[in-house]
């Protein structure tokens, strides 16, 4: 009986933890990590701030976990596209388009994940997830080099360059100053332009002979 | 007389502030921002920790200023190369080689500036300096597009992609895990390989027709 009580309690704890994380993600998607305060989150989840601290030592730990879950979701989404059958160059293009579109449609979250200034615990996770993205690209680039579709000597370095280029292309047009400019009516590039520029940049960079290049002329 | 005393005191204050910042940069170059504690720094500068707080409110503010000074130095060094006379593609290649070499020869500092997890104040500066780098590339890319040397529709986006690719290429081989691997005898790419990969990646990406590509074959 004691055992069953403990198990039930563990279930409730896990369920509450999940609810806290869901509320936290909603906050970050709405207002970035800046909006993720322990007090506001406790209110969202309908619990006392003290209970919140029983689940997470502090904002840094909580932010890092929100970051890791949201990022894993993006990595999985990208992996699903990059690992479909087909030509490596077409899959790279499709993966970039998918990634850009997802970021574009959750801009506040994308900026928070990629570049919002935040606790060092999140920076630690950023480095780990950049490696996770890089590994996906290494896989694809190696396949493409073997198939003669990509021309690259240092596949791991090329993959790192791709990760950096993608993140920075999206931070620019997704950043708060760029959003402010758009809200004031000054126009930035739109999703199709960002997407096309990114695809052209990356395909050319890895030495693919482009259908995209012909399109661009 | 009162005025002269005040002026002399201001000079001494400025001099001490400069000495603190020099000591702080030396610490970061040696052990990253992790090695920059207020207590150790006060000892290096030969002052009481209390005096240190009279000049800087805390580690975040101090780290942000060390970051800004070191980064401005790198921006200036890159600008000097990118703004020399000559063909835009050759200047881009020379700028990338210079940047990679400087980072390679101060790896701990380069990793600290580009990616070490650290206070949000430094992350804020990172965003600003990425824009400063991007502006340098915008200038060069615009010139190259006008000259027909580069093929790019969205110059600002292309510049952002370059900034990201460069940072990520250098964080990889400069990161603590990569350094640990090298110390254990597993080899990573060396500077000429990193430099050549980066130049080829970036020149191809912006649509330059490469002498570098022929070299690579």
UniProtKB/TrEMBL annotation, chains A, B:
One Pfam family this sequence matches: TetR_N
Residue ranges: DNA binding: 37-56
The organism's place on the tree of life at top rank: Bacteria
Domain (HTH tetR-type): residue spans on this chain: 14-74
Keywords: DNA-binding
PANTHER family: HTH-TYPE TRANSCRIPTIONAL REGULATOR PKSA, HTH-TYPE TRANSCRIPTIONAL REGULATOR RUTR
Protein name per the record: HTH tetR-type domain-containing protein
């Amino acid at each position: 009986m004691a055992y069953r009580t403990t198990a039930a309690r563990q279930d409730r704890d896990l369920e509450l933890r999940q609810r806290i994380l869901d509320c936290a993600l909603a906050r970050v998607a709405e207002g970035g990590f800046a909006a993720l305060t322990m007090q506001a989150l406790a209110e969202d989840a309908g619990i006392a701030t003290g209970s919140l601290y029983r689940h997470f030592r502090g904002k840094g730990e909580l932010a890092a976990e929100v970051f890791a879950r949201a990022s894993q979701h993006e990595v999985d989404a990208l992996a699903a596209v990059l690992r479909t059958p087909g030509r490596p160059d077409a899959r790279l293009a499709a993966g970039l388009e998918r990634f850009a579109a997802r970021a574009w449609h959750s801009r506040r979250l994308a900026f928070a994940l990629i570049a919002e200034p935040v606790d060092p615990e999140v920076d630690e996770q950023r480095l780990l997830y950049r490696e996770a993205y890089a590994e996906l690209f290494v896989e694809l680039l190696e396949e493409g080099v073997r198939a003669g579709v990509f021309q690259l000597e240092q596949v791991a370095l090329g993959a790192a360059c791709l990760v950096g280029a993608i993140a920075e292309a999206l931070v620019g047009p997704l950043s708060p100053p760029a959003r402010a400019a758009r809200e004031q009516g000054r126009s930035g590039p739109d999703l199709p332009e960002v997407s096309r520029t990114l695809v052209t940049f990356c395909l050319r960079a890895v030495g693919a002979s482009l259908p995209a290049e012909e399109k661009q002329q």
